Amino acid sequence: MPVTTPPSARRHAVLAVTALAAALTLTTACGSNGSGHAAGTGSGTDNVQPAGQGSSDYGTGYGSTTSGYGGQAGGDSGKPAAAGKPAGALALHQSDTLGPVVTDAQGMTLYRFDKDTAKPPTSNCSGDCATTWPPVPADGATAPAGIAPDALGSVTRADGTKQLTIGGWPAYRFAKDTKPGDTKGHGVGGTWHALASDGTKAGTQQPGDVGVFAQPQLGKILVDGMGRTLYRFNKDSAWPMKFGCNDTCLDTWKPAKPADRSKLNGISPHLVSTVTRPDGTRQLAIDCWPVYWFTGDKQPGDINGQGKMGLWFAVSDNGKKNTKTPSGTSSSGAASGNTPSDTPSSDVTATPAY
Known about the structure:
Layout: H1 7-29, H2 56-59, E1 91-95, E2 99-103, E3 111-113, E4 117-118, E5 121-122, H3 128-132, E6 152-156, E7 162-166, E8 169-170, E9 192-194, E10 210-215, E11 219-224, E12 231-233, H4 249-252, E13 253-255, E14 272-276, E15 282-286, E16 289-290, E17 292-294, E18 312-314
Antiparallel strand pairs: 1-2, 3-9, 4-5, 6-7, 7-8, 10-11, 12-18, 13-17, 14-15, 15-16
């Protein structure tokens, strides 16, 4: 005769299957599903801000001429770039359309000319051309963190003067740029281009919500849409989700803005997700780890947060923690060759990590 399953057993089986499905959904939600949101974080259409920040913290300031981040404010507004003025301390300015571009100490954009050559360095802009495109003198130029020092060089012009080169390409200003951050020379004649940090043409890729920057000391690391280095914190954890940076920590380490996965450059979309913080605000996560930007970084390419307290590390383009130690610095666990673990360690001291 047929075997009849008791109603209570059927109910228990349904509950077990439901619980298993819920667990699988939760486990795979972070960084691996189509929505890109961690379990419990909702849809990607919510317009919310990370903890302690308003919208102005994202859209203005970093790399702008008003904040000093990469803009090196202090140029003479309304006056053309002066011919023959030393470049001084070079900087990187985050252009909304071109990404990081090289500027001089006054925030004026530097350019390269397609009719020049880099190997060997040769300038083919003289006479009237050099009036419109003043060559940048080589003397006194120094590189910021985002430009490799050995990328700077010089070329002797026909008149005997030394001109700055970046990645072998002679550098120029544009006479019609009148204020810091101007990029009016980019694309002129199809042969003039703002300089990227390695001497290549800026703007070959549109800046995305998350992108890749070739940092001279760390290699390829992730940056946000404003060019800021993204960091992860050893006292956070990816699974189960835990946030170790709260309260006053957030004054120094700002939760990164959630990203649109259709606006990524150089990073696999499956690594990008959004997590919900304890206060209900949303934060960008890379490979399921919450990521932050550091208030001590002042321009694209800065890595001043790398190795802080042996707990804060930049994120590589594969989504993993970058434990390289920049030259001239030491970081707990990194300087000795030890690689800090991806999860909080029980022997981490209670010293504030910010």
